[in-house]
Automatic annotation (TrEMBL):
InterPro entries: DUF421, UPF0702_alpha/beta_dom_sf. This is YetF C-terminal domain-containing protein. Keywords: Cell membrane, Membrane, Transmembrane, Transmembrane helix. The chain crosses the membrane at residues 6-25, 32-50, 62-80. Belongs to the UPF0702 family. Residues 148-180 are annotated as: Disordered. PANTHER family: UPF0702 TRANSMEMBRANE PROTEIN YCAP (PTHR34582:SF6). It is a multi-pass membrane protein. Pfam families: DUF421.
Length: 254
């Protein structure tokens, strides 16, 4: 008898939770804000308590879940036409990369580290931060990346020059490819690009050895970018073309 009671309670709670989540709207499934996440976790916990404790009335679980549903639906309706309420519950997006420059203060405030940034850039098929115009951390935790738009005029101009020069353009391209191949060993695994060489002022010696370079080479490279010491560099990466991206700490003037 107790087994049948547990089975009936499980099926009943399943359909109740299913209906509650559906009534919360598709936004609940597509994007979890902080409020959505809290309510989802609380509904799940209440459902488990009601199923496990067969001596407890099912209404002890149904009523709290309906209250949570009313809170979620009520706040959603209020936020439809009130941006202040929307910002209060959902927060605002944060600009992590602005015109190719990393905003470290925003990263610190959001507790968002460099590994998170590089991971989500790779997910957006971006190999270098230098190619990013804006990277915006949405309220859902997703990173929206807007790549830099290349100047079509310069591209057309370059193509015209290459056509007039004949094979000279191809020769220059071969030289660029050979230069980048000197920086990146042929057997290097490209799926982990861009390769971090300096993170938070600390040299990533393991990655440096993978591209068969030394600290002496790296120091000369960052000095060409205006940094005098490794500690001045917040992030330094190299992409598959052998192009370096260097973000330097800027001292605030008092």
């Amino acid at each position: 008898m107790e087994t049948w009671n547990l089975l009936i309670r499980t099926i009943a709670i399943y359909f109740i939770v299913f209906l509650i989540l559906r009534m919360m709207g598709k936004r609940e499934i597509g994007k979890l804000s902080v409020l959505d996440l809290v309510i989802s976790v609380m509904v799940a916990e209440i459902a488990v308590l009601v199923i496990e404790d067969t001596d407890r009335s099912m209404w002890d679980g149904i009523v709290p879940m309906l209250v949570l549903l009313a809170i979620q639906v009520g706040t959603a309706l209020l936020s439809l036409n009130n941006r202040k309420i929307r910002l209060l519950f959902d927060g605002t997006p944060s600009v992590i990369v602005d015109k190719g420059k990393i905003n470290r203060d925003v990263m610190r405030k959001q507790r968002y580290n460099l590994d998170d940034l590089l991971l989500q850039l790779r997910e957006n098929k971006i190999t270098s931060i230098a190619d990013v115009e804006f990277a915006i951390l949405e309220t859902s935790g997703k990173l929206s990346v807007i790549p830099k738009v290349q100047d079509e005029d310069s591209d057309s101009g370059e193509s015209g020059e290459n056509n007039s020069l004949g094979l000279s353009g191809n020769n220059e391209r071969v030289k660029e490819e050979s230069a980048s191949s000197k920086l990146i060993p042929p057997g290097f695994r490209y799926e982990i690009l861009p390769i971090p060489l300096i993170m938070d002022g600390k040299v990533q010696d393991e990655n440096l050895s993978k591209i068969e370079k030394t600290r002496f080479w790296l120091k000369n490279a960052i000095q060409e970018q205006g940094a005098h010491d490794f500690k001045e560099v917040f992030l330094c990466t190299i992409d598959h073309r052998g192009k370096l991206f260097v973000d330097i700490h800027r001292k605030k003037r008092g």
